[in-house]
Design brief:
The chain is about 15% helix and about 50% strand. The protein is an alpha+beta fold and about 200 residues long. Strands 1-4-5-7-8-9-10-11 form an eight-stranded antiparallel β-barrel.
């Protein structure tokens, strides 16, 4: 009788382990839709080497998955409307939309699609992916930080993140510039990009 009970206990244990493994294999990262009303894409670039011009893109959409137990299962994909660039100066914005810079008629969107998400220092993580600007795609790395999770008044689960990276605009074929009498340049080559992203968890 004891032998029979031992065998039964062993069978139950094996089955339980099997069920657990299946559950883990079926587990998926939570999926979110980016909330454009609470997300923003900012950029900063030097002017004449002495000051910084800050701008933003007003239209952003996309989605991401996030697994706080295994960050490598996470991913993100975003699309930005190029013509939504806004530096609060219409004349400058019109120039930035022209073929000298973003050429928004030919390239209406800026896109980013992650290829890998990996652990960084402390609670930070790194998002590696393809950034396409002006029709040119380059791999970039974003330093990201998880902001947390909360439920809004309507019962929607939300998560938020900040991320930043720095690119050389010439890598994306944006080379327009003018030389100053001092030998410096009107527009800096390095562009710092900062993102504030909040997403709403998909239902179902």
């Amino acid at each position: 009788m004891r032998i029979a009970k031992s065998i039964l206990a062993l069978v139950v244990a094996v089955v339980s382990i099997g069920i657990s493994d299946v559950s883990e294999s079926l587990a998926e990262a939570a999926a979110y839709v980016i909330d454009p009303d609470h997300s923003q894409v900012l950029f900063k670039v030097k002017h004449m080497g002495i000051s910084t011009v800050t701008g933003r893109f007003d239209l952003i959409e996309g989605s991401y998955t996030f697994d706080d137990t295994d960050i490598s299962k996470s991913s993100v994909e975003t699309t930005i409307t190029s013509a939504s660039i806004n530096t609060n100066k219409q004349k400058r914005d019109d120039h930035l939309k022209s073929p000298d810079f973003l050429d928004v008629t030919k390239n209406p969107t800026i896109t980013f699609k992650s290829k890998e998400v990996k652990k960084g220092d402390g609670e930070d993580f790194i998002i590696v992916g393809d950034l396409t600007i002006n029709g040119v795609t380059k791999q970039v790395e974003l330093d990201a930080e998880y902001g947390g999770k909360a439920n809004d008044p309507y019962g929607n689960e939300r998560t938020a993140f900040t991320a930043e990276t720095k690119i050389d605009r010439k890598d994306f074929g944006i080379t327009w510039n003018k030389t100053l009498d001092s030998g410096g340049l009107v527009v800096g080559d390095d562009v710092r990009i900062e993102l504030e992203v909040e997403g709403i968890r998909k239902k179902g």
